[in-house]
Specification:
The structure is a homodimer. By secondary structure, chain A is of the alpha/beta class. Chain A has a single domain, classed as Alpha-Beta Barrel (nicotinate phosphoribosyltransferase). Chain A contains 18 helices and 12 strands. Chain A has helices at about 5-15, 30-40, 60-65, 65-80, 85-90, 105-110, 135, 140-155, 160-185, 200-215, 225-230, 245-250, 255-270, 285-290, 310-325, 340-350, 365, 410-420, and strands spanning about 45-55, 120, 125-135, 190-195, 220-225, 235, 280, 305, 335, 355-360, 385-395, 395. A 7-stranded parallel sheet of chain A has the order 6-5-4-10-9-8-7. A 5-stranded antiparallel sheet of chain A has the order 2-3-1-11-12. In chain A, a hairpin with a 2-residue loop joins strand 11 (about 385-395) and strand 12 (about 395). In chain A, helix 4 (about 65-80) packs across helix 8, helix 9 (about 160-185) runs parallel beside helix 10 and helix 12 crosses helix 13 (about 255-270). Chain A is globular. In chain A, about 45% of the residues are buried. Chains A, B: GO terms for molecular function: glycosyltransferase activity; nicotinate phosphoribosyltransferase activity. Chains A, B: It catalyses: 5-phospho-alpha-D-ribose 1-diphosphate + nicotinate + ATP + H2O = nicotinate beta-D-ribonucleotide + ADP + phosphate + diphosphate. Chains A, B: Its EC number is 6.3.4.21. Chains A, B: It comes from Altericroceibacterium spongiae. Chains A, B: This is Nicotinate phosphoribosyltransferase.
Chain lengths: ~425, ~425
Amino acid sequence: MAVTDIATRAYNHNFRLDPIVRSLLDTDFYKLLMLQMIWREHADVRATFSLINRSQTVRLADIIDEEELRTQLDYARTLRFTNKELIWLAGNSFYGKQQMFKPDFMAWLADFRLPEYELRKADGQYELHFDGPWTHTTMWEIPALAIINELRSRASLQNKGRFALDVLYARAKAKLWEKVERLRAFPDLVISDFGTRRRHGFLWQRWCVEALKEGLGERFIGTSNVLLAMDADLEAIGTNAHELPMVEAALSDNDAELAEAPYRVLEEWRQHYGGNLLIALPDAYGTAAFLEHAPSWLANWTGFRPDSAPPVEAGEQIMRWWEEQGRDPKQKLLIFSDGLDVDTIERIYHHFHGRVRMSFGWGTNLTNDFRDCEPDGEAGLEPISLVCKVTEANGRPAVKLSDNPAKATGDPQEIARYLRIFGETGHVLSPLSV
Amino acid sequence: MAVTDIATRAYNHNFRLDPIVRSLLDTDFYKLLMLQMIWREHADVRATFSLINRSQTVRLADIIDEEELRTQLDYARTLRFTNKELIWLAGNSFYGKQQMFKPDFMAWLADFRLPEYELRKADGQYELHFDGPWTHTTMWEIPALAIINELRSRASLQNKGRFALDVLYARAKAKLWEKVERLRAFPDLVISDFGTRRRHGFLWQRWCVEALKEGLGERFIGTSNVLLAMDADLEAIGTNAHELPMVEAALSDNDAELAEAPYRVLEEWRQHYGGNLLIALPDAYGTAAFLEHAPSWLANWTGFRPDSAPPVEAGEQIMRWWEEQGRDPKQKLLIFSDGLDVDTIERIYHHFHGRVRMSFGWGTNLTNDFRDCEPDGEAGLEPISLVCKVTEANGRPAVKLSDNPAKATGDPQEIARYLRIFGETGHVLSPLSV
């Protein structure tokens, strides 16, 4: 008995747009945590976010149709938080805490919409800028990246047959499940999905997240994607990102203030959040420099999220710092989230097992690994190193150095100034995979 | 917009049975061709068909619930050819010929239903017999096999999670597609689906057939499954099977008549069918013996379907025979259909390419290859060597020798008599894979 739903069919006939971002919750959880703090502390700051394609050989403007991109961005701008979403945000507990988002912030959120964007083509790439109050432009980062990545996926799948497509996804499923089977070997693994921004597509991310939920059981602690956390009844995972020290640094009036910026941000963070949200991101201007001048109260925090440095070295460095501060690393948490895949997760897991608590935020290689899945062997599905970074705050250039010079962003003269102030200890150039 | 079809949902709530065989067309095309001849020439013959599980270590009665099996068999007995099906059979052209099925036969078919069955358990196996007019019992072969094979698949999938199941099929799809990609390398390949009887399940066979249609294009000439041929607008493929010489042999009154039986059957066949349906199956009592005494008019036929003998040797033997008869093998057709997979297809293709026309009937390894696809590595999905053979005709034992003694069926004393008459030249014992 094949009953055709006539309404669905009629709707499909009228099909005009398959929106990529369909909810303002389809973003990373840390965006909302940061937003609440930005809204309360820095409502007057203007910040520009800009798209940066570090994979220059992939000429996005030749692949993605400009009209389609505008239509998707415009559609995202029509979105509001729905009542259900607001009630869930207000009523759900996050990281074991009720009322993470305060009523006045929730009231403000109810009117939120994504601000305007500036888009133009240059040299086969898109120049995409979001300029406006930091409280608004910050919210473009994840949807903008998700839209561009998914439009690129769609473009590369455009002329495939029905079964070629079916087999493509079949292969990707089999591939992911092999990873799940390998990860199952680690009974006390703690892992979550961090793959929203670089995902192949929303539906694929959802499949991956639900597959991990079934396949990894307790090892899978949740997802950074707020919408998927709500829909799949998972924990929303995330803390804070580089944009906080970057804006704080950009707003510094002199070199001394700049040197203190990474710690001022954390000072502010601990006014708003506690417990397992007290995770420091040490690499904005180099992990070594950060730890060298870190205040002793930071040793009370739950842990660190080493990001751009080689993970084993960065972890060891942080553990040494805890020991110097008289803390037992076994009580502390390291969150790894930079370009992870099963091999690196295994290596890190074995290296640190029993010496420190660990958690893994698995991103691009979870939600966008179609390598060798293309039946016809065509290119276009390999993930690219696309980011959307804050480039200016109140008209001043924003800079990120990171532990890997390949990840540095900002005006070269400013980068030079920052390098003078923070030093280059421990900076290691590594090729960017994702 | 996720519109739920309420009627479908309500139907699912009332779900009692997921029938395996839902149409009398869900059978092999040669069954209908043979049936028309049996109906016209042997309407008075009684024939018993019996299930034979040559994979004795697989205890089917421990795996498949008897009630479920009875329910499926009973459901199949409720089926009639529908008007649409009858109209299509009458109106479609098969092998380029209109009205393959004559009006009087079609009128008879309109009332057809599957006859009763006898089922009991013994030693962990099912004894399943179909006794009655040959015109009716013959039609049980394919649905009975399809039902048992699919019930076994369902049993082994019973306790799997949603994503484990999804990945299982994903792997099987990827596996099949790799075969498709390899087969694409042969531009003048001619291949069809012969996998109904041993299929993993109906929906899986449908996927495989439609995938081959997309993936192999012109190389894929059709399917032996009449229902899928109708639904997917493919050619229905098939000619005749061992039951014809087996019954003819069983009905022989003396050794001299028995020795002639294999040729009498073909004599009869050519009264009914012509062109590309003139394909001889030479191995019922040994290919060597068959060719040694074959009448010269058989050299006018389109080709042979060597079955139980090693394919290269059997093909060479048949080609020698054509040459002895003064015919050019390049004008003749060899149809290979015994336990094929891509490796064997490639080997046979390369061996005979340019020397004879070839066609491949791909069965079990097309529609039931889940080896290494089980996420949890459990057994139960490997195909088994299950057949449903004619065992008696008008109360006399039926015998098949074939070129491979492992495939011989029948009463041991009768087998000895047949061996005395036909000889054992060229009989080679080979392990049965499927």
